[in-house]
Amino acid sequence: MAVPGRGTWSAATASAATAAVPASIVSAETLTKISTKAAQDFVDKYYPTLQTSRATLSSFYMPSTKAADGKTLPVLVFNGKTIPDPPALQTMFEKDMPTATYEVQSFDCHPLNPNYNAAGPGPHPPESGRNMSILISVSGYVKFADVNEDPLRGFHESFVLVPNTAIAALKAGEGVRSWLIQSQTFRFVV
After folding, report:
1. What pTM, to 2 d.p., does this model score?
2. Region 159-165: what's the mean pLDDT?
3. 58 CB neighbour count, 10 Å cutoff
């Protein structure tokens, strides 16, 4: 499925991702539509937040927790440097990073686990297809405001989004995110 000017996603990949889920519950087409919409919505909200609303950045991330293997989630890496948690990343952007303009050139998305349930049953009925984890890869350019003589810098960023398990207890509306970042890796490219 093509998203004009943004990226592509194939039904074949979705079909492979649904191997653990009976076809009668979640079709490859359903996973494709849900993951593509989630990726589009995420990209359309995340990068403007980096530009204008950095004080709300941590709302995009799942709460810090320990995984079964003892690793801390979410996993955050910025240009090779591990960031301990979402508030630390938000502070880095608010205090250490100059204002920037992000220009997303493309993105791609793939369901990773169509049966994601980190803390028991997912927040949605199984047949909805919304209890999956999604990999999003984003490429584009960033221009820092305080560096007028430097050209645009290329970047590549990967995210793993998971369903917001608290969404059932929260009222839907502005500020309530359906998908949260579980893992993020940002890298400048030459």
Report:
1. 0.80
2. 92
3. 17
